[in-house]
Amino acid sequence: MGFVTDFHDFTSYSAANVRKCFYFCGMKSIIHFLLLLFLLVGKAQAQNSHFWDGIETFDGPTDKNPILASQIDFYFDKLVAPFPDSITLEINRLIERTHSNSDLSDFILWHLLEKYRHPEYMNQDQVFVYLYDNYFSQLEIKDLNAANLALIRDKAETYRRLALFNLAPNFAISDSVDLQSVESEYTVLFFYDHDCDVCRQEMQELDSVVLAHHEVTVLAIDMNPDSSGVSQGDSSVDSSGESSGISSGGFAFRPKGDGDLKSPIQYHRRITNPSELIALYDIETTPLIYVLDRDKRIIAKKIRARQIPLVL
Fold it and tell me: Which of 35, 80, 225, 229 has an alpha carbon within 20 to 30 A of 26's alpha carbon?
């Protein structure tokens, strides 16, 4: 089968040539680098046009086929630009080539749906939305039923709502303040669990970010309703509602410039019933970060704290 040969041919080509590209330009000349990158992309596009040669005659098993799955992953990870528009264009081309073999095309669609349910790069979740809109909601696909279609639809609508440059869903910070009313050049939503070691590390990184970027306001939201893991010193709230740490109930405002505060993060909240925010912001794991602009539009999501300055 031709496309297996192409797969191996390209693996021997790509890594070495990418290294040569970086070694040659040494990042000293961006023009040279872009020129070499353009030539490299042209070579990759030539490889792309032949990668799936022979796929139309594929007659092997599709169920739990690790070789076929790995080839799909390699193609979309290494040979396709990591942008939703580029990925969806290649999906359409591949499904068009395999439409006569429904078992194969269905396998490809299911594999890609799962792949872009937890994408590697920011905003690739819009590929999941595209797959639902153009395939799963339109076609009869093997193993697709009303129950799993409803789950796919709900996830697609969540990803659609949380797409880059959409307004972040609003929610209450206190009885008188909500997310949209927070005035800041940039707002970082940090969803965490106080029992999570990685979350603690991210909190330290956030402290450094806020100290270096005074235009950033951080709203840290503890998704663990169990207060037993938080020390008494971290949950003290005075009669005015201000806190020297994480509030054990509701939001607590943490003004900037207060030398007694251990952290420059401005807001904290522990959620007693996290299900609403979990659905609102697609919180499957913690820590989870969203970066919002002045208008509260999402400009970055699901990144690490140290990456925040790159999008400011």
Answer: 80
Give phi and psi for 181, each to the nearest 5: -90, -5
pLDDT beyond 50 at 85? yes
Mean pLDDT: which of 27-41, 202-216, 220-234 is highest? Answer: 202-216
Better-predicted residue by pLDDT, 234 or 82: 82
- DSSP reduced 3-state for 292: strand
Digit-coded pLDDT (tens) for 264-298:
676 677 677 788 889 999 999 999 999 999 999 99
User: Hey, what amino acid is at 106?
Assistant: D
| Chain segment 25-44, per-residue pLDDT in tens | 444 455 655 665 566 555 55
Helix (H) or strand (E) holding 42: helix 30-51
- 103 burial (CB, 10 Å; 0-12 / 13-18 / 19+) is middle
Q: How far is C-alpha 205 from the geometric centre of its chain's CA atoms?
A: 19
Is residue 286 within 8 Å of 196, Cβ to Cβ?
yes
Bridge pairing between strands 186-192 and 216-222: parallel
Beta strands in the chain (DSSP E): 186-192, 216-222, 250-253, 267-270, 288-292, 298-301
Q: Which of 108-117, 135-144, 170-179 has the least mean pLDDT?
A: 170-179
**Residues in a beta bridge with 192:** 222
CB count in 10 Å sphere of residue 265: 22
pLDDT score of 20 more than 70? no
> CB neighbours of 302 closer than 8 A, spacing ≥ 6?
122, 288, 289, 290
User: Residue 20 CB: number of other CB atoms within 10 A?
Assistant: 12
